[in-house]
Each structure stands twice: as C-alpha cells, then as structure tokens.
Amino acid sequence: MKSNMTIEQLVATFNKYGDEYLSFIDVTNKHSRRPDMHALILLDKLLPGDGMYDLITGAENGQFFIGIEPEALARVATEEIILDLVRCGVVYDEDSESLSLFA
C-alpha cells in the first residue's frame, strides 16, 4: 500500500478529522475492542517493527508517544487510515512532531 502523502498532508488530514476524535464506534474493521489497542495494531501492521523497540516510546502527563516516524506513516497511510487513527484517539503532536495518545 503506497500513499506517498507529504508530512504536511498527513498533518492536515489529522486536523481535518479532528471532529471524529474518539469516535471509535464508527471504526468498521476493528482489530480490537479497545481503541488504543486497535490503533497500535493498525500502526504495527502498516509499519512493522524489528522487535527491538517498543511502539510506545515515552509518556508525559498522560500523553503516550508512539514510536512511528510521521514521514514513514505518510508514505503508507491513506486518508481512511488516518481517520481510523483519529477515531481511536491518535493525534499528531506538533510540539514533538510525533504521534501520541492520551490516557
């Protein structure tokens, strides 16, 4: 699956679907009954790791940072995938230039 979004398009797509934030009920093809798990499974399927690093790379004040490079996600994600991620609570954090979830 190739998307080849730019990072700017990726960020714009996350922002475009902000009103869908935490609307997990609207995700049709669920990999888990839990929104955070669905998001992490989806990201792992899109960009499988090598087993050396955790998907959650840090946490601060209830915000969990996801160890997926936004540029790599932009290369493979479709608009529908970004919509599902937003519905699961994933955001693009502009301060850290990374993906994150809130507890």
Descriptive report:
The protein starts with 6 loop residues before the first helix and ends with a strand. The chain has four helices and four strands, in the order H-H-E-E-H-H-E-E. The mean pLDDT is 93. Helices cover 37% and strands 17% of the residues. It has one domain. The protein is α+β, with helices and mostly antiparallel strands. Helix 2 runs antiparallel to helix 4 (79-87).
Give the count of structural domains: 1
Helix percent band: 25-40%
Give the strand tally.
4
Shape: globular
SS content category: alpha+beta
Strand content: 15-25%
Q: Which ranges are low-confidence, i.e. pLDDT below 50, for 5 or more consecutive residues? A: none
Put simply, the count of helices is 4
Q: Could you tell me the mean pLDDT?
A: 93
Give me the Rg, rounded: 12 Å
Q: Characterize the main sheet.
A: 4 strands, antiparallel
Give me the side-by-side strand order of the main sheet.
Answer: 1-2-4-3
What pattern of helices and strands is seen along the backbone? HHEEHHEE
Distance between the termini: 30 Å
